[in-house]
Amino acid sequence: MSTVLIIDDNPAVATALDVLFSLHDIATLSAQTPQAGLQLLAGENVDLVIQDMNFSADTTSGAEGEALFAQIRAQWPDLPVILLTAWTHLERAVELVKAGAADYLAKPWDDGRLLTTVNNLLELAEAQRELDRRRMREKQRRDKLAAQYDLRGTLFADPASERVIALACQVARSELPVLITGPNGAGKEKIAEIVQANSAVRNGAFVTLNCGAIPSELIEAELFGAEAGAYTGANKAREGKFEAADGGTLFLDEIGNLPLAGQMKLLRVLETGKFERLGSNRERSVKVRVISATNADLPAMIRDGGFREDLYYRLNAIELALPPLAERPGDILPLAEAFRGDGKPFAESARNALLRHAWPGNVRELRNVVQRAALLAQGERIEASDLHLPKPPPQKTAVTVEPEKADIEAALLRAGGVIAQAAADLGLSRQALYRRMQRHGIDNP
Ligand SMILES: Nc1ncnc2c1ncn2[C@@H]1O[C@H](COP(=O)(O)OP(=O)(O)O)[C@@H](O)[C@H]1O
Ligand SMILES: [Mg+2]
């Protein structure tokens, strides 16, 4: 049950409101002076305050109410406060709403309207608390993961990333091959590092081969090694990556670029642990944990005959699918803050621009954009213009047009007169909504 604190020097007000609220499952507390009100706030769980503007019969300036409101705001910044005041003080009340009071109502008040306002504010506050609780739980889960595993400095805040990282940690200890999928720059290599760092062979070698970075005819020699004279230019015998990774981990990046012949040999090593160097018949045995990664659509490649289905099933015994950055927006600002380092802070405009951009190049693009902006920004802060991001295409659904008088009136009605809610509905700040109400001569219904 929610509790409303009524601070009013006239006990009849508290009595009337107590009767009204008790019919609607809302408990009340009351105080007749600002001091008593603040004392109750300090000692009790209060969800909302309804306060008067004047507390002594001989004062009408509203200064006492203003001072009380300032003290409440200072100590309980999120507590919703409704100003209930004689119509002669409405102007003062409007000023305070601009300063963060939730709403104001004139005495004598309309019960229905007051009740709607109170209920809306209580719901809003409960929704905010639920959001805070969820964020807290998410943070606890992240902290626990970081305490339990070596996350290789990987930064994340979005639940979608957390799921992939938690799964990576969980499967790290097994010997099964892991396939990491996701677009370029999403952080697949970081996930591979996490798997390696938490595996049973973390003290063994960590050998990487980027199958996309070397000519396809040389990949097999890279992977399996070659005897002298095995191919043109092979003057000396050489060890392959599988031998180098024996007892440790082999990370095969861009596995989609491995030619079919290499795929067949890779399948055999994965199944038997055995292979031969190019130009040799001598069978060699290794024990290697294989982690592979790709941005390619391997199932589509299988349909086109470019990738072996049997190898695919072997590699993806465990698949870690890393979503593009745009699908884990909770990561954007924490990553941006980290990439900016100790430099200038972001202006609000920059943060909004970072959140709006689609990030086709994912974390890599974000890092480059932020580091360049941090280096070149001229002002005190990094502004949106320093980021040089392309303008987002206009969104059809977003309301970017100036709301008409009728829109404002409709929003106020929908919000039951709660200014904060109507403003959020219209995508305006409270002050901006007030200015427009004044301009259009709209009284709060
Ligand atoms: N979650 C993260 N936290 C910190 N750095 C990251 C994160 N994800 C990616 N990076 C950095 O972004 C760059 C691109 O990541 P990388 O793992 O190479 O992407 P991919 O292999 O998917 O192309 C690297 O410099 C990497 O260190
Ligand atoms: Mg990569």
Major sheet strand order: 2-1-3-4-5
Would you identify the regions where 5 or more consecutive residues have pLDDT less than 50? Answer: none
Query: Which class of secondary structure composition applies to the elements?
Result: alpha/beta
CATH architecture of the largest domain: 3-Layer(aba) Sandwich
Q: In CATH, what is the class of the largest domain?
A: Alpha Beta
Kindly report the CATH topology of the largest domain.
Rossmann fold
What amount of the residues lies in strands? 5-15%
Q: What is the number of independent domains? A: 4
Number of strands: 12
CATH superfamily of the largest domain: P-loop containing nucleotide triphosphate hydrolases
Q: List the bound ligands.
A: adenosine-5'-diphosphate, magnesium ion
**How confident is the prediction overall: mean pLDDT?**
92
SS summary, helix count: 19
Helix content: 40-55%
Q: Could you give the distance between the termini?
A: 28 Å
Main sheet?
Answer: 5 strands, parallel
> What Rg do the Cα atoms give?
32 Å
The gross shape turns out to be elongated
Please write out the topology.
Elements lengths: L1 E6 L3 H12 L3 E6 L2 H10 L4 E4 L11 H13 L5 E6 L3 H9 L4 E5 L3 H38 L10 H14 L5 E4 L6 H10 L8 E5 L5 H9 L16 H4 L4 E5 L6 H13 L1 E3 L6 E3 L3 E6 L3 H6 L5 H7 L2 E4 L10 H9 L7 H9 L5 H15 L7 H4 L17 H10 L4 H8 L3 H11 L5
Parallel strand pairs: 1-2, 1-3, 3-4, 4-5, 6-11, 6-12, 7-8, 8-11
Antiparallel strand pairs: 9-10
The structure holds adenosine-5'-diphosphate and magnesium ion.
